[in-house]
Amino acid sequence: MDLDEELLKGTFYERNIYPMLEKIASLIAGEGESKREKLERHLISAGRPGNLGPNEFIALQLVLGLLSVSIVAIVALLIGPTTPRGLALAIIFAAVAGMASYIIPRFYLKKMITQRENEVRKTLPFAIDLLVVSAEAGLGFDMALNRVVQKMEGALALEFRRVLEEIKLGTPRKRALRNMLERVDVDVLDSFVSAIIQAEELGASIGEVLRIQAEQMRTDRRQRIEKKAQEAPVKMLIPMVLFIFPTIFIVVLGPVILEVITQMAEGPAL
Question: Alpha carbon of 156 to those of 68, 142, 166: distances in Å?
């Protein structure tokens, strides 16, 4: 393969756009890899939205920031801030818009991580119940995990599928499960994986461990529901005080107050 063919190898994005994004990300993140590695972990925990890498995500932040600044600047030019105060306000608005557009993707990424973790926490008890049924039917742990992947959808099913793929590629089951914990930081999933690994190391029955885990998950879920039910009255108090009680007072006392005002305006009866 000659030099021209080597240069033309790959897509236009891989040959032109991605190297530029990598340089921009290096300038923003600095020479150290710690910031990009942390961002990479966050993207993995969020399920890799848009299949973005850390370089593309940083470049996206920069593009959004510059785009917001440009829009505010164009609007300011069209309005025409002729006074120094108007020019100063336009600069302030442009700076605020640029900073907000740069920061918002980070908040959105954290929100996606939280939603994904909550989804895993919510669906794990059902997955363990299905694992118990599959294990009692005579399937091994890997086959039972594959049955869960076939029957379920969502973030947890995707993580189990990745575990199975890593096992097929030669990764030990223990390492593949721990890799899943690095991608999804959920306490109940950590407890489940630890129990499976411990059972495998001690030679205990996987089916019995799964039954214990299923019972524990149901208990934990019931306790979380009871806790939320106990917190509901306290959370309802604020909107009731701010919105419902004033409305009730207006409906009940409004006619009385109007009647009193009317009588006072008419004066005392002769």
Answer: 36, 15, 15
Domain boundaries, the chain: 3-115, 118-218
Residues 6+ apart with CB under 8 A from 67: 101
d(CA 81, CA 194): 64
Which of the listed CATH numbers 1.10.287, 3.40.1170, 1.10.3470, 1.20.81 matches domain 118-218?
Answer: 1.20.81
CA distance 239 to 232: 12
Helix or strand or coil: residue 105?
helix
Where the chain has pLDDT below 70, the residues are 1-33, 80-82, 86, 267-270
Contact 91, 77 (CB under 8 A): no
CA dist list (Å): 213 to 81, 158, 170, 230: 66, 21, 27, 26
- DSSP for 131-172, please give it: HHHHHHTT--HHHHHHHHHHH--SHHHHHHHHHHHHHHTT--
Cβ neighbours of 195 (radius 10 Å):
17
Whole-number pLDDT of residue 29: 53
Provide the terminal-to-terminal Cα distance of the chain, rounded to the nearest Å: 113
The type of residue at 108 is Y
Q: What is the pLDDT of residue 6?
A: 47
Give the span between the Cα atoms of 145 and 19, in whole angstroms: 39
Nearest CA to 224 among 121, 112, 114, 132?
A: 121
* AA letter at 223: Q
Residue 9, judged by CB atoms within 10 A of its CB (0-12, 13-18, 19+), counts as: exposed
How far is 14 from 158, CA to CA, in rounded Å? 27
pTM of this structure: 0.68
Q: What is the CA radius of gyration of the chain?
A: 30
Say if CB 97 and CB 71 are below 8 A apart. yes
